[in-house]
Amino acid sequence: MMDHAHDLASVRDATERLLTAAAELDNARVAEPSRLPGWTRGHILAHLARNADALVNVLQGRPMYASGAARDADIERDAPRPLDVQLADVRDSADRFQETASVFADWSRTVELRNGVTDQAARVPFRRWIEVELHHVDLGIGYDLEDLPEEFTQREIDFLAARFRGHPDVPALLIKQDDGSVIPSGAVESVSAEQLASGYEPPLPALTVNGHRADLLGWLAGRRDGSALHVEGGAIPSLPPL
Question: Of 136, 118, 128, whose CA–CA distance to 156 is shortest?
Answer without folding.
Answer: 128
